[in-house]
Known about the structure:
The protein has 369 residues and is of the alpha/beta class. Helix content is 42%, strand content 16%. Residues 20, 70-72, 112, 114, 118, 158, 160, 187, 189-190, 209, 220 line the site of pyridoxal-5'-phosphate (PLP).
Amino acid sequence: MGLHERYGLTPVINAHGTYTPLGVSRSEQRVASLAAEALSEFFVMDELKDLAGRTIVAVTGAEAGTVVHCTAAGTTLSVAATMTGDSESRIAALPDTEGMASTVVLPAGHAVDYRHPVVQDVRLAGATPLLAGSDDGCSLADLEAALAAPGVTCLLLVSSRMTRGAAVPLAEAVAVAHGHGVPAIIDGAGQDFRVEELLGTRADLITVSGQKYLGSPTAGLVLGRADLVRAVRAQERGIGRAMKPSKEAIFGVIAALEARAGLDRAAWERAQRGKVARFVTRADRIRGITAGSVPDPTGLPFARVRLTVDAATARVTATGLAEALQEGTPSVWVMTQGQDRGELILELVPLTDEELELILVRLGELVAG
Length: 369
Ligand SMILES: *Cc1c(COP(=O)(O)O)cnc(C)c1O
């Protein structure tokens, strides 16, 4: 008997992407096994963190790396690291930032809300966010002006589908921060497939989610400059105590990174393209639905499916269709940001052929009915 049945929980088919309210991702068996094996053993945790750091360096090419509880924790602790460096007294004082530079500049459109505002990750460290530019965009001149304010500790950039306004060129923004003598941090939570590209911006620290596309247990990877990564680790004697990684998560990250290093990326991408193409062909045959594939908005190496619902023909609106999918058993979740335009978006990456078949059958029933 599966967990859902045993504990009376709703079975879910997640076409919503790496969505935190649905448990984010599926771990491969080797990741699950290593994490489970770790649970019944003791370790010298510092050795384990050194091992994780070496694995991150080997797989990503970063100068240094470490693991913290999650990406949000990674952002808070990265900001803290820029404020404290390796000063024990400063680490002990946070979130009291008296005597420290504690202003964090971020482009206004990067103040994203991932069901929790990223600026709160900044405030948790005791720092104060300063938004540059507007929601429509943030020019390099806007960044120059904000970074010239007194007491700036770092620049925070976000690489995500959720940013607003004209895209901020990341490498140029990092260079502006460096021109003002402050480090730049990139929140790249769901961007593990693009981590080399983000490192190429010369950002000082990059945070990446373990549990999103990498498929580890909940964890945040922080990678970049060795002195700052050391300062992130040192926060564990301060505010980082509540954001520490578990031994099973660290082993899960190591297994997931090893799997990623061994991945035949071209074959994987081909498989994703095939999956999307087959789904689109079938969904497009349903009367009242037009299906197509759309690239990932951040440049991740797979496409999403867009269903456009013609309510007159389908006899159901996109909103009604999404609700009916969710109310069924299993409960099917899709992305609904465009539902008022008649659009639903599906991400197929973690789904099996059986699950895709079930979604197609349900779509056919709901639209015909
Ligand atoms: C998901 C996400 C986070 C938070 O990740 P956690 O690992 O759940 O803390 C942070 N920033 C962005 C842009 C995200 O998409």
